[in-house]
Amino acid sequence: RLSPPARRGLRLIADQPVTSLGLPALAALLDLDEPETHRVVAELTTASLAAYNTRVRLHDLVRVFALGESLNDDRPTDRDQARGRLLDHYLAAAGTAVVASGLQPMVSRQDFDPTDFDPTDFDSTDPEPADSGPTAEEASAWLRAERENLLTLANAHHSAARPEFASRLSSCLVRMLDVQGWFTDGLHLHTLALEQARRSDDRATRARSEAFLS
Fold first, then answer.
1. Torsion-angle region of residue 33: left (phi > 0), alpha (psi -120 to 50) or beta?
2. Running DSSP on this structure, what letter comes out for residue 56?
3. % of the chain at pLDDT higher than 90
4. Which whole-number Å values give the CA distances from 26 to 9, 37, 80, 151, 189, in the listed order?
5. How many CA atoms lie within 13 A of 104 on its CB side?
6. Is 90 within 8 Å of 149 (Cβ atoms)?
7. What is the pTM of this model?
8. What's the chain's average pLDDT?
9. In sequence order, what are the residues at sequence separation of 6 or more whose Cβ sits closer than 8 angstroms to the Cβ of residue 160?
10. 209 Cβ contact list (under 8 Å, min separation 6)
11. For the packed helices 76-101 and 23-30, what is the interaxial angle rounded to 10 degrees?
12. Pairing mode, if any, of strands 55-57 and 20-22?
């Protein structure tokens, strides 16, 4: 009884290796604008197929069912494109968070240039004007909310649609993870980046990852 956009949304959410998604990330995944994304979420929650409290979550049984539907109904290229949009969103959002934090980057901005990211996608209870971008506090809150997803998606199996995701995210977040005291997360992320560099025989990225780990 779901509409086609809601059926597609349920399938693509289930195909992601994360436990929850914020609305900006969900909009990127589904390639929908904000009103369309809200309509999909409202339809799924009304049908008791998803829970929403600032983030969208699926029950494990719903996820298993919807993932089976996705494997049957969605082409592999469609699933790869959706995962790629999600990874692009997270990398751009991470870059915006770093810029908003005011930390001096340790690497070139080319590694995390957020020029294609809409800064109003950051959730805020007291939104700033559309062109002001997130505050440092909002950037820190975003990283706390999303770091589990970022680390999960940095796994090579999950980021195959964007093979350089782990190395670029590592370069982007190295200072923020250090300042926040999330040393275990940093160790994990930089190790994934190093593994990616070794697989691709990227000597520059390998040297940078080894420096981050030292």
1. beta
2. E
3. 73
4. 9, 7, 15, 17, 23
5. 1
6. yes
7. 0.89
8. 89
9. 80, 83
10. 167, 170, 190, 191, 193, 194, 197
11. 140
12. antiparallel
CB 114 within 8 A of CB 96: yes
Identify the pLDDT of residue 126: 46
175: its two tokens: 């200072």
Phi, psi of 135 (to 5 degrees): -85, 170
Give residue-wise pLDDT tens across range 144-163: 999 999 999 999 999 999 99
pLDDT at 111: 59
Judge contact between 174 and 106, C-beta under 8 A: yes
CA angle, residues 62, 50, 22, in degrees to nearest 5: 120
Alpha helices in 33-164 (DSSP H): 34-46, 60-73, 76-101, 136-153
Pair 96, 122: CB distance under 8 Å = yes
DSSP code of 5?
Answer: H
Q: Give residue 115's pLDDT.
A: 57
Helices (runs of H) and strands (runs of E) counted in the chain:
9, 3
Encode pLDDT of 108-146 as tens digits. Answer: 666 566 555 555 566 644 444 445 678 989 989 999 999
